[in-house]
Amino acid sequence: MPLTFAEDTASALPLHVVEAGALEGWAGAQGGTVQTWVKATGFSGGIGEVLLVPDANGAPFLAVAGYGTAAQRARGRFALAAVAEKLPDGVYRLDGDLSAVALEEEALGWLLAGYGFDRYRAQKVSGARLVAPEGVDARRVEIIAAGEALTRDLINTPASDMGPQELEDVARGLATEFGAAFDVIEGDDLLSRNFPMIHAVGRASPRAPRLIDMAWGESGPTLTLVGKGVCFDTGGLDIKPAASMGLMKKDMGGAATVLGLARMIMALGLPLRLRVLIPAVENSVAGNAFRPQDILTSRLGVTVEINNTDAEGRLVLADALTYGAEAEPDLMLSMATLTGAARVAVGPDISPFYVDDDAVAAAIHAAGVKVADPCWRMPFHAPYERMIEPGIADLDNAPSGGFAGSITAALFLRRFAGDVSRYTHFDIYGWQPAPAPARPKGGVGMGARAVLDALPEIMGL
C-alpha cells in the first residue's frame, strides 16, 4: 500500500469525524435516517469506533469516525489511524471541524496506518485511502511518511540482511536519489584515517566496519547528523544473555532514524547544508575482539578505558562526533539506541534528548508536542562528569554502579563534540513494543519529526 493520499476524489465516501460529546447534536442535524441508525447501532463516538450508514439500497453513503473526548485523545496519538485500520477498503474524504495541527497529525497517522513490513511475508494493512484534507500540505506529509517508512524498514530488517554493507547501500542510494556527495572509509583504512574506536568495535566481525559520510546542499546553515549504526550487538566479549540480544537488530536504530530524517530534509529541499555520518559496525565475538580493561585512544586523542564491551555505541559515535565537529557545524545532532537507562527513565514512547542550549531544547520540545512526536529534555549534569573519569585513562566507557546511565553516556559523547555549542544527543528506543494506531509492533522512528519541525526555528530557515 503506497503511503500517499488518494487522487480519486470523485468516488470518495464522506467520513464525518465526531467527538463523543457532540454525537447527539451531529446525528440530529443529519436527519431522521442517520439519527435512527446511530441509535440502533449503539455507536457512541469513542476513539476507533467506525459506523457506515447505508442508503436505501444498502450501500454506504457516509461513514462516521469516533473521535472520543479530548481527555481520551491526550492518552494516545493518531486517533483517526485507529479508524483507518477498521474501515473497508476504499477512498474517504474527511468531514469534521479539526484544527490545522490536528488535521496534519491525523493525515500523517492515516498514511502510516498503511505501513506494513512485507519483505519476508505479506502483511495485512489498511486499504482505506484518504483524500488529502483541505489545508494540509499533502506533499510534506507524504515525504514525512516516506522517511518514517524508511526508518521502520531499516530497523525491522534482520542483521542477516542489514549489516554495515547493506546500511551503506541504503545511504548510497539516498545520495544518488538526491544528488548528495558520498564517501565511505572501510576496514583497516579506518586506522590509517584515524578512526581507531570505530575500527576496534567492528574488527571482530567478518563484515568490515566503516564510516559512512554523506553531504548535501550548497548553501545555508550547516547541520550534521550522526547516527549509531551498530547493525547487531552481541555485547562483544561481555556477551549479552539471550533475552537481551533478541532485539539487537535494532541497535542501528539511530542510523535508521538519521537516514529517515535526512530523506525528509532532502526531499523537502530545506535551505541548509546537511551532513550525515554513520559509523556502521557489528559488535561481534572473536579472538581479535576488543577486551574489557583495554584502553583505546580515540580520534580526539582522548584515552578510553573499556570496562564493558557492551557499551560500544558511545565508542563508535565518539570518533564520528569528533570528525563532525572538525567542520564546526552550526548544529550537530546524534541519535542512538544507546542505553537501557533511558527506557527505564521515560519508557518506549518518549525520546529523551540532551542539549546545553535552552532555545534548542525549547524548540524541540514544542515541536514534539505539535507533531505528536514526544521528546523530553534530560540534563547534561556536570557533577556526574567524575563518574566517567576512571583515573587510569581519560574516560570510562561504562561507569560502575548503574546510576544515571543515560546521563553519563551523554556526558561521554559531549566530550567529543568539540566546540559545537548546540550539540544535541537523542537516546532513543526505536521500537514499538505493542501495536498502536499508526504504529505496528516493530521498528519506529523517534524524534525525527520533532527535529524536522524545529529546524526552521533553530537554524533560522
From TrEMBL:
Gene3D superfamilies in the record: Leucine Aminopeptidase, subunit E, domain 1, Zn peptidases
Superkingdom of origin: Bacteria
CDD domains to which the protein is assigned, alphabetical: Peptidase_M17
GO molecular function, one term: manganese ion binding
GO cellular component terms listed in the entry, alphabetical order: cytoplasm
Alphabetical list of PROSITE patterns matching this protein: CYTOSOL_AP
Residue ranges of every copy of the Cytosol aminopeptidase domain listed in the record: 308-315
Pfam family, one: Peptidase_M17
GO BP terms, alphabetized: proteolysis
Protease found in the keyword field: yes
Keywords: Aminopeptidase, Hydrolase, Manganese, Protease
Family: Belongs to the peptidase M17 family.
PANTHER family attached to this UniProt entry: LEUCINE AMINOPEPTIDASE-RELATED, PEPTIDASE B
Name the UniProt record assigns to this protein: Leucyl aminopeptidase
